[in-house]
Write a structure and sequence with these properties.
The protein is α+β, with helices and mostly antiparallel strands and 189 residues long. Helix content is 62%, strand content 12%. Strands 1-2-3-4 form a 4-stranded mixed β-sheet, with helices on one face.
Length: 189
């Protein structure tokens, strides 16, 4: 029965049961083998070292980003917990950078939007070329989308488009841009 096993053994069994985490892995090595030697053999064979534990039930080596991140005595419950916490909380550097970029972008969006709104307000008042183009676009939007559409709603659509168009074009479409995406979505391309 599981509850009669020592804490360290229970933790090892739980860890063994849940060690399939995407690109993360666990490599068991027989207790009679030398952990360091067997680990080096596996590394030489090309085992991934992104987030991998090599263990022999007594000791564990956690590799992260191709380096040893932690060596743990698996007979000590706290060291086993520390090893598992590091293993399961791992985030690949590329994901960290992307998540940081997303967070930075989220924080910048309100300021960027306010700047665009200010430019639109100025253009509505001081730019005859913009005023003429906007009047035509506004009429098109009202006729196509909703006859009760307001100038503020169309301005908001423009702000959203201006904030996202370059991002979508750069990430998903290269130089083809949003018109290409829209053509593809409606089957006109």
């Amino acid at each position: 029965m599981l509850s009669k096993l020592p804490v360290a053994e229970r933790l090892r069994l739980v860890a063994s049961a849940v060690f399939s985490c995407g690109s993360s892995s666990r490599c068991s090595i027989d207790t009679q083998d030398n952990l360091e030697t067997e680990t080096q053999k596996k590394v030489a064979k090309g085992y991934p070292l992104t987030n991998t534990i090599f263990e022999d039930t007594r000791r564990g080596y956690l590799y992260q980003n191709d380096e040893v991140a932690l060596v743990a005595d698996l007979t000590q419950p706290q060291q086993l917990v520390d090893l598992l916490n590091l293993f399961f909380s791992y985030t690949a550097p590329a994901h960290e950078d992307f998540n940081k970029a997303v967070e930075d972008f989220k924080q910048r969006v309100p300021d960027l939007a306010r700047g665009l709104v200010a430019k639109l307000v100025d253009a509505h008042e001081n730019n005859p070329r913009f005023i003429k183009a906007f009047d035509g676009f506004f009429s098109l939007c009202k006729n196509s989308l909703n006859p009760n559409l307001s100038v503020a709603a169309v301005d908001e659509m423009l702000v959203q488009h201006l904030l996202t168009e370059r991002l979508i074009r750069t990430i998903f479409l290269g130089a083809r841009g949003v018109p290409y995406l829209l053509d593809g979505l409606v089957g006109c391309g």
